[in-house]
Design a protein that fits this description.
The chain is an alpha/beta fold. The chain has two domains: 278 residues, Alpha/Beta hydrolase fold, catalytic domain (Rossmann fold, 3-Layer(aba) Sandwich), CATH 3.40.50.1820; 55 residues, Winged helix-like DNA-binding domain superfamily/Winged helix DNA-binding domain (Arc Repressor Mutant, subunit A, Orthogonal Bundle), CATH 1.10.10.10. Strands 3-4-6-5-7-8-9-10 form an eight-stranded mixed sheet, sandwiched between helices. Strands 1-2 form a two-stranded antiparallel sheet. This is Pimeloyl-ACP methyl ester carboxylesterase.
Length: 354
Protein backbone atom coordinates (compact mmCIF):
# COMPACT_ATOMS: atom_id res chain seq x y z
CA UNK A 1 0.00 0.00 0.00
CA UNK A 2 1.26 3.47 -0.82
CA UNK A 3 0.31 6.50 1.29
CA UNK A 4 -0.80 9.61 -0.58
CA UNK A 5 -0.13 13.15 0.55
CA UNK A 6 -3.64 13.38 1.94
CA UNK A 7 -3.22 10.15 3.90
CA UNK A 8 -5.16 8.20 1.28
CA UNK A 9 -3.80 4.73 0.62
CA UNK A 10 -3.66 3.25 -2.84
CA UNK A 11 -3.51 -0.46 -3.57
CA UNK A 12 -1.52 -0.66 -6.80
CA UNK A 13 -2.62 -4.27 -7.33
CA UNK A 14 -6.35 -3.71 -6.94
CA UNK A 15 -8.25 -6.79 -7.99
CA UNK A 16 -11.31 -7.12 -10.20
CA UNK A 17 -13.92 -9.80 -9.57
CA UNK A 18 -16.32 -10.89 -12.32
CA UNK A 19 -19.70 -12.58 -11.99
CA UNK A 20 -22.91 -12.86 -14.02
CA UNK A 21 -26.59 -12.26 -13.49
CA UNK A 22 -29.72 -12.59 -15.62
CA UNK A 23 -31.90 -9.63 -16.53
CA UNK A 24 -35.70 -9.68 -16.29
CA UNK A 25 -35.73 -10.11 -20.06
CA UNK A 26 -33.55 -13.22 -19.79
CA UNK A 27 -30.22 -11.73 -20.93
CA UNK A 28 -27.02 -12.91 -19.23
CA UNK A 29 -25.14 -9.85 -17.94
CA UNK A 30 -21.51 -9.98 -16.81
CA UNK A 31 -20.44 -7.47 -14.18
CA UNK A 32 -17.21 -6.66 -12.36
CA UNK A 33 -16.51 -5.24 -8.91
CA UNK A 34 -13.33 -3.58 -7.66
CA UNK A 35 -12.41 -1.61 -4.56
CA UNK A 36 -14.42 -1.10 -1.40
CA UNK A 37 -16.57 1.59 0.13
CA UNK A 38 -19.84 3.26 -0.88
CA UNK A 39 -21.21 2.00 -4.17
CA UNK A 40 -20.34 3.66 -7.50
CA UNK A 41 -22.11 2.11 -10.50
CA UNK A 42 -20.48 2.80 -13.86
CA UNK A 43 -22.38 2.71 -17.16
CA UNK A 44 -19.97 2.39 -20.08
CA UNK A 45 -20.28 3.94 -23.49
CA UNK A 46 -20.88 2.24 -26.81
CA UNK A 47 -18.84 -0.98 -26.37
CA UNK A 48 -17.11 -2.61 -23.43
CA UNK A 49 -15.27 -5.78 -22.47
CA UNK A 50 -14.63 -6.31 -18.75
CA UNK A 51 -11.57 -8.50 -19.28
CA UNK A 52 -9.87 -6.58 -22.08
CA UNK A 53 -10.56 -3.16 -20.56
CA UNK A 54 -8.82 -4.35 -17.38
CA UNK A 55 -5.84 -5.37 -19.53
CA UNK A 56 -5.31 -1.91 -21.06
CA UNK A 57 -3.01 -0.08 -18.62
CA UNK A 58 -4.52 3.37 -19.22
CA UNK A 59 -8.12 2.22 -18.93
CA UNK A 60 -7.44 0.06 -15.90
CA UNK A 61 -5.66 2.94 -14.15
CA UNK A 62 -8.78 5.06 -14.70
CA UNK A 63 -11.05 2.43 -13.14
CA UNK A 64 -8.67 1.93 -10.23
CA UNK A 65 -8.86 5.66 -9.60
CA UNK A 66 -12.65 5.46 -9.44
CA UNK A 67 -12.48 2.39 -7.19
CA UNK A 68 -10.09 3.96 -4.67
CA UNK A 69 -12.54 4.74 -1.86
CA UNK A 70 -15.55 3.29 -3.67
CA UNK A 71 -16.88 -0.14 -4.55
CA UNK A 72 -16.93 0.22 -8.31
CA UNK A 73 -19.36 -1.88 -10.32
CA UNK A 74 -19.09 -2.07 -14.11
CA UNK A 75 -20.98 -4.32 -16.49
CA UNK A 76 -21.05 -5.41 -20.12
CA UNK A 77 -24.27 -4.67 -21.92
CA UNK A 78 -26.34 -7.43 -23.58
CA UNK A 79 -24.42 -8.95 -26.48
CA UNK A 80 -21.26 -7.10 -25.52
CA UNK A 81 -17.98 -8.27 -23.97
CA UNK A 82 -18.50 -11.12 -21.50
CA UNK A 83 -22.29 -10.81 -21.45
CA UNK A 84 -24.49 -13.27 -23.32
CA UNK A 85 -25.15 -12.99 -27.04
CA UNK A 86 -27.61 -10.34 -28.13
CA UNK A 87 -31.15 -11.28 -29.06
CA UNK A 88 -32.51 -10.20 -32.47
CA UNK A 89 -34.78 -7.50 -31.02
CA UNK A 90 -33.79 -3.86 -31.65
CA UNK A 91 -31.48 -2.29 -29.10
CA UNK A 92 -33.50 0.16 -26.99
CA UNK A 93 -33.17 2.33 -23.90
CA UNK A 94 -35.48 -0.04 -22.06
CA UNK A 95 -33.09 -2.87 -22.85
CA UNK A 96 -30.20 -0.82 -21.49
CA UNK A 97 -32.10 -0.04 -18.29
CA UNK A 98 -33.13 -3.68 -17.97
CA UNK A 99 -29.45 -4.69 -17.84
CA UNK A 100 -28.65 -2.01 -15.29
CA UNK A 101 -31.64 -3.07 -13.17
CA UNK A 102 -30.39 -6.67 -13.14
CA UNK A 103 -26.92 -5.68 -11.94
CA UNK A 104 -28.33 -3.42 -9.23
CA UNK A 105 -30.67 -6.16 -7.97
CA UNK A 106 -27.91 -8.77 -7.87
CA UNK A 107 -25.41 -6.55 -6.07
CA UNK A 108 -27.97 -5.39 -3.53
CA UNK A 109 -27.65 -1.74 -4.47
CA UNK A 110 -30.14 0.45 -2.65
CA UNK A 111 -28.99 4.03 -2.92
CA UNK A 112 -25.75 4.64 -4.81
CA UNK A 113 -23.61 7.01 -6.82
CA UNK A 114 -24.07 6.59 -10.58
CA UNK A 115 -21.69 7.48 -13.42
CA UNK A 116 -22.31 7.29 -17.17
CA UNK A 117 -19.86 8.01 -19.97
CA UNK A 118 -20.49 8.70 -23.65
CA UNK A 119 -23.75 7.01 -24.67
CA UNK A 120 -23.88 5.57 -21.15
CA UNK A 121 -24.45 9.11 -19.85
CA UNK A 122 -27.95 9.06 -21.35
CA UNK A 123 -28.62 5.65 -19.79
CA UNK A 124 -27.49 6.90 -16.37
CA UNK A 125 -29.55 10.08 -16.76
CA UNK A 126 -32.61 8.06 -17.77
CA UNK A 127 -32.25 5.85 -14.70
CA UNK A 128 -31.77 8.85 -12.41
CA UNK A 129 -34.85 10.49 -13.94
CA UNK A 130 -37.05 7.41 -13.63
CA UNK A 131 -35.74 6.34 -10.21
CA UNK A 132 -34.61 9.54 -8.47
CA UNK A 133 -34.90 7.98 -5.03
CA UNK A 134 -32.05 5.52 -5.78
CA UNK A 135 -29.28 7.90 -6.89
CA UNK A 136 -27.19 9.81 -4.35
CA UNK A 137 -24.90 11.57 -6.86
CA UNK A 138 -24.76 11.51 -10.63
CA UNK A 139 -21.65 11.96 -12.82
CA UNK A 140 -22.03 12.31 -16.59
CA UNK A 141 -19.00 12.49 -18.88
CA UNK A 142 -18.85 13.08 -22.64
CA UNK A 143 -22.58 12.52 -23.04
CA UNK A 144 -25.57 13.85 -24.88
CA UNK A 145 -29.34 13.94 -24.24
CA UNK A 146 -30.47 13.86 -27.88
CA UNK A 147 -28.66 11.47 -30.21
CA UNK A 148 -29.87 12.90 -33.53
CA UNK A 149 -27.99 16.13 -32.72
CA UNK A 150 -24.62 14.46 -32.11
CA UNK A 151 -23.72 14.43 -35.83
CA UNK A 152 -25.29 15.33 -39.16
CA UNK A 153 -27.60 12.61 -40.58
CA UNK A 154 -25.25 11.87 -43.49
CA UNK A 155 -22.34 11.33 -41.10
CA UNK A 156 -24.40 9.00 -38.94
CA UNK A 157 -25.44 6.99 -42.02
CA UNK A 158 -21.82 6.77 -43.15
CA UNK A 159 -20.57 5.55 -39.77
CA UNK A 160 -23.37 2.99 -39.44
CA UNK A 161 -22.74 1.70 -42.95
CA UNK A 162 -19.01 1.42 -42.31
CA UNK A 163 -19.51 -0.52 -39.08
CA UNK A 164 -22.03 -2.83 -40.75
CA UNK A 165 -19.99 -3.55 -43.87
CA UNK A 166 -16.35 -3.10 -42.82
CA UNK A 167 -16.07 -3.64 -39.06
CA UNK A 168 -12.29 -4.04 -39.20
CA UNK A 169 -11.74 -0.73 -40.99
CA UNK A 170 -14.44 0.99 -38.92
CA UNK A 171 -12.85 -0.03 -35.61
CA UNK A 172 -9.54 1.49 -36.73
CA UNK A 173 -11.13 4.76 -37.90
CA UNK A 174 -13.26 5.03 -34.76
CA UNK A 175 -10.19 4.54 -32.57
CA UNK A 176 -8.78 7.68 -34.18
CA UNK A 177 -12.07 9.55 -33.60
CA UNK A 178 -12.46 8.45 -29.98
CA UNK A 179 -8.81 8.63 -28.93
CA UNK A 180 -6.69 10.90 -31.12
CA UNK A 181 -4.25 11.42 -28.25
CA UNK A 182 -3.68 7.73 -27.55
CA UNK A 183 -0.18 6.33 -27.97
CA UNK A 184 0.32 3.72 -30.69
CA UNK A 185 0.07 0.78 -28.30
CA UNK A 186 -3.15 1.90 -26.65
CA UNK A 187 -4.70 2.69 -30.01
CA UNK A 188 -3.76 -0.71 -31.47
CA UNK A 189 -5.12 -2.50 -28.41
CA UNK A 190 -8.33 -0.45 -28.41
CA UNK A 191 -8.90 -1.18 -32.11
CA UNK A 192 -8.73 -4.91 -31.43
CA UNK A 193 -10.74 -4.50 -28.24
CA UNK A 194 -13.67 -2.97 -30.15
CA UNK A 195 -13.84 -5.97 -32.49
CA UNK A 196 -13.57 -8.41 -29.58
CA UNK A 197 -16.34 -6.58 -27.69
CA UNK A 198 -19.13 -7.14 -30.19
CA UNK A 199 -19.98 -8.40 -33.63
CA UNK A 200 -20.50 -5.88 -36.41
CA UNK A 201 -24.26 -6.48 -36.18
CA UNK A 202 -24.40 -5.85 -32.44
CA UNK A 203 -22.04 -2.85 -32.64
CA UNK A 204 -24.24 -1.33 -35.33
CA UNK A 205 -27.45 -1.93 -33.33
CA UNK A 206 -25.94 -0.29 -30.24
CA UNK A 207 -24.66 2.66 -32.25
CA UNK A 208 -28.06 3.09 -33.86
CA UNK A 209 -29.62 3.29 -30.40
CA UNK A 210 -27.03 5.87 -29.32
CA UNK A 211 -27.86 8.03 -32.34
CA UNK A 212 -31.58 7.71 -31.58
CA UNK A 213 -31.36 8.45 -27.85
CA UNK A 214 -33.69 11.10 -26.46
CA UNK A 215 -33.82 11.62 -22.69
CA UNK A 216 -34.65 15.32 -22.73
CA UNK A 217 -38.01 14.77 -21.03
CA UNK A 218 -36.37 12.87 -18.14
CA UNK A 219 -33.67 15.39 -17.25
CA UNK A 220 -35.96 17.62 -15.23
CA UNK A 221 -36.89 14.71 -12.96
CA UNK A 222 -33.33 14.11 -11.78
CA UNK A 223 -33.07 15.01 -8.10
CA UNK A 224 -29.49 13.95 -7.34
CA UNK A 225 -26.63 16.46 -7.26
CA UNK A 226 -25.13 16.16 -10.73
CA UNK A 227 -21.71 16.80 -12.26
CA UNK A 228 -21.51 17.01 -16.06
CA UNK A 229 -17.96 16.98 -17.45
CA UNK A 230 -17.00 17.38 -21.09
CA UNK A 231 -13.73 17.87 -22.94
CA UNK A 232 -13.60 21.16 -24.77
CA UNK A 233 -12.71 19.74 -28.19
CA UNK A 234 -14.30 16.28 -27.96
CA UNK A 235 -14.32 14.96 -31.51
CA UNK A 236 -17.07 12.38 -31.01
CA UNK A 237 -19.56 14.34 -28.89
CA UNK A 238 -19.57 18.14 -29.32
CA UNK A 239 -19.31 20.10 -26.09
CA UNK A 240 -22.63 21.78 -26.90
CA UNK A 241 -24.29 18.43 -26.21
CA UNK A 242 -22.69 18.29 -22.78
CA UNK A 243 -23.97 21.78 -22.01
CA UNK A 244 -27.43 20.80 -23.21
CA UNK A 245 -27.34 17.81 -20.90
CA UNK A 246 -26.40 19.97 -17.92
CA UNK A 247 -28.91 22.70 -18.78
CA UNK A 248 -31.79 20.23 -18.55
CA UNK A 249 -30.86 18.90 -15.09
CA UNK A 250 -31.88 20.99 -12.08
CA UNK A 251 -28.82 22.48 -10.33
CA UNK A 252 -26.37 20.44 -12.40
CA UNK A 253 -22.77 21.69 -12.41
CA UNK A 254 -21.08 21.77 -15.82
CA UNK A 255 -17.29 21.59 -16.10
CA UNK A 256 -15.33 21.88 -19.35
CA UNK A 257 -11.87 20.36 -19.23
CA UNK A 258 -9.01 20.51 -21.76
CA UNK A 259 -8.66 17.90 -24.45
CA UNK A 260 -10.14 16.36 -27.57
CA UNK A 261 -10.21 12.60 -26.84
CA UNK A 262 -13.62 11.13 -26.15
CA UNK A 263 -12.40 8.14 -24.15
CA UNK A 264 -12.06 9.27 -20.52
CA UNK A 265 -8.77 7.46 -19.92
CA UNK A 266 -6.92 8.95 -22.93
CA UNK A 267 -5.34 12.41 -23.08
CA UNK A 268 -5.32 14.71 -20.07
CA UNK A 269 -6.89 12.39 -17.53
CA UNK A 270 -5.90 14.18 -14.33
CA UNK A 271 -8.38 17.10 -14.66
CA UNK A 272 -11.24 14.64 -15.16
CA UNK A 273 -10.19 12.44 -12.26
CA UNK A 274 -9.78 15.47 -10.00
CA UNK A 275 -13.29 16.77 -10.76
CA UNK A 276 -14.93 13.38 -10.25
CA UNK A 277 -13.18 12.55 -6.99
CA UNK A 278 -13.83 16.03 -5.59
CA UNK A 279 -17.53 15.76 -6.48
CA UNK A 280 -17.77 12.33 -4.83
CA UNK A 281 -16.16 13.68 -1.68
CA UNK A 282 -12.93 11.73 -2.11
CA UNK A 283 -9.42 13.06 -1.41
CA UNK A 284 -6.89 13.74 -4.13
CA UNK A 285 -5.25 10.52 -5.20
CA UNK A 286 -1.64 9.89 -6.02
CA UNK A 287 -0.96 7.49 -8.83
CA UNK A 288 0.75 4.32 -7.69
CA UNK A 289 3.35 2.22 -9.49
CA UNK A 290 1.90 -0.37 -11.85
CA UNK A 291 3.05 -3.98 -11.38
CA UNK A 292 6.22 -4.67 -13.40
CA UNK A 293 7.33 -7.82 -15.17
CA UNK A 294 10.80 -9.31 -15.26
CA UNK A 295 12.74 -9.40 -18.51
CA UNK A 296 11.91 -13.10 -18.93
CA UNK A 297 8.23 -12.45 -18.27
CA UNK A 298 8.26 -9.75 -20.97
CA UNK A 299 9.65 -12.32 -23.40
CA UNK A 300 6.93 -14.76 -22.47
CA UNK A 301 4.21 -12.07 -22.76
CA UNK A 302 5.47 -11.21 -26.25
CA UNK A 303 5.12 -14.83 -27.34
CA UNK A 304 1.67 -15.09 -25.78
CA UNK A 305 0.70 -12.00 -27.81
CA UNK A 306 1.89 -13.81 -30.94
CA UNK A 307 -0.44 -16.70 -30.16
CA UNK A 308 2.22 -19.21 -29.08
CA UNK A 309 1.27 -22.19 -26.96
CA UNK A 310 3.21 -23.06 -23.80
CA UNK A 311 5.09 -25.74 -25.75
CA UNK A 312 6.04 -23.24 -28.46
CA UNK A 313 7.12 -20.70 -25.84
CA UNK A 314 9.32 -23.33 -24.23
CA UNK A 315 10.90 -24.27 -27.55
CA UNK A 316 11.65 -20.66 -28.48
CA UNK A 317 13.13 -19.80 -25.10
CA UNK A 318 14.91 -23.09 -24.53
CA UNK A 319 12.95 -23.98 -21.40
CA UNK A 320 10.61 -26.80 -20.46
CA UNK A 321 6.92 -26.52 -21.37
CA UNK A 322 6.08 -26.70 -17.67
CA UNK A 323 8.40 -23.75 -16.98
CA UNK A 324 6.71 -21.76 -19.75
CA UNK A 325 3.33 -22.57 -18.21
CA UNK A 326 4.59 -21.38 -14.81
CA UNK A 327 5.81 -18.09 -16.32
CA UNK A 328 2.40 -17.48 -17.91
CA UNK A 329 0.67 -18.20 -14.62
CA UNK A 330 2.95 -15.81 -12.72
CA UNK A 331 2.27 -13.07 -15.28
CA UNK A 332 -1.45 -13.66 -14.98
CA UNK A 333 -1.38 -13.46 -11.19
CA UNK A 334 0.94 -10.45 -11.11
CA UNK A 335 -1.26 -8.43 -13.45
CA UNK A 336 -4.56 -9.72 -11.98
CA UNK A 337 -5.58 -11.30 -15.28
CA UNK A 338 -7.82 -14.29 -15.94
CA UNK A 339 -6.71 -15.26 -19.43
CA UNK A 340 -3.98 -15.31 -22.05
CA UNK A 341 -6.08 -12.90 -24.12
CA UNK A 342 -5.64 -10.28 -21.40
CA UNK A 343 -1.88 -10.81 -21.40
CA UNK A 344 -1.82 -10.33 -25.17
CA UNK A 345 -3.95 -7.18 -24.98
CA UNK A 346 -1.75 -5.79 -22.20
CA UNK A 347 1.40 -6.43 -24.23
CA UNK A 348 0.01 -4.64 -27.29
CA UNK A 349 -1.28 -1.68 -25.24
CA UNK A 350 2.06 -1.36 -23.45
CA UNK A 351 3.71 -0.83 -26.83
CA UNK A 352 5.42 -4.19 -27.00
CA UNK A 353 4.00 -4.98 -30.43
CA UNK A 354 5.28 -1.78 -32.03
Amino acid sequence: MMPGRSGLTHNVAMGQRIATTVSPAGATIAYATAGSGPLLVYVSGWLSHLDLSWALPAERAFYETLADGRRLIRYDKPGCGLSGRATPEPYTMDRELDALRAVLATTGAGRFDLMGVSSGAAVAAAWAGRHPETVSRLVLYGGWPHGPAVAAPEIQRHVLGLVRQHWGLASDLLADLFAPDADAGTRAAFTRYQRESASAETACAMLLMAYGTDVLDLLGRIAAPTLVVHRERDRAAPIAQGRRLADGIPRARFVAIPGRSHLPYVGEVEPLVREIRRFLGLPVRRRGVAPALTARQHEVAALVARGCTNREIGERLGIAERSAEAHVERIRLRLDFRSRAQIAAWYVAAGGAN
